[in-house]
Fold this protein.
Amino acid sequence: MAPAELAAWLRLTESVGPGAARRLLAMAGSAEAVFELPAAALNQALPPQQRDAFKQPSEHLTGLIEQAGTWLAQPGHALLTLGDPGYPPQLLATADPPLLLWLQGRRELLATPSLAVVGSRNPTAQGADNARAFSRALAREGYTIVSGLALGVDAAAHEGALDASGATIAVVGTGLDQVYPRRNAGLAARLLAGGGLIVSEYALGMPVLPANFPKRNRIIAGLSQGCLVVEAALQSGSLITARLATEAGREVFAIPGSIHSPQARGCHALIRQGAKLVESAEDVLEELSGQPAPAAPEIPETPHEQQALLDAMGFDPVSLDALMARSGWPAAELSAALLELELDGQVARLAGQLYQRRRQG
């Protein structure tokens, strides 16, 4: 992008809101031509306060233009504008496509078949396992996994795709000169090293603002052919993503959970509203591609006594006392068996002295 064009786009998007920017672009035809519009056109398109900010660039904007030029000169960094031929068409077709997309990583992923995988920031152990397993299987089938680089299900979804040597896109709510949350800095580095892509509509230097994260969900939904919700409470931001996906005409999938788990209630609500209930990645693949499901992977056999204990647990959280009553095992023997199953990854220890079986595969 030429320096003059970059400066014009940044001046436009930093001076006025997206609605006003679109009106000005419609009048002028390009970002640079916006600044040649006569005063009468500006008076028609902008309220007085915005006109003043538009006419007089701030010192912050001057610094941002310089910073952006330096950032874009680095390998793997790019900026797409709404009118760019490389702008993802599936996102362009949504109700509110971003004016700018800042990119770090492999931008070709924007043109690949993609699926959003979203969910709770505080998932159960089984929820995190499901996010990894579904993402791993879908990535192996050629789908790019799109999520938000948040803690919990988002992180597990990115990890699952990377574990399969697959592709993944992280859509974030800050400028690309920082990683939020900081705990996921290592994951962001792994994502970029593994050929992934990080996307933001926010300029460099944009700090962590709570309002930006629900807004970025429309990009997650817009980049994807469908949206899989793994776990979500009734007030979860993941339900916003699912709603936006529905409004954009995309498929919505939800994994059911325990009727006793608050983290399953959002998924159950989606299913009641028409989302497709899925129990395996093959269910998603069949819906998206119409192809027959591949044979289920073989799961290693569990010793008979351990299997009997797992059967007694079911898949809902259960206390040690309840499990003693179901299985008839003494407390010491039961605790030892649960520890062995926990170390083997088949059981998770939850808060409140509860245990939960983890699905395998």
About this structure: The longest helix spans residues 125-140.
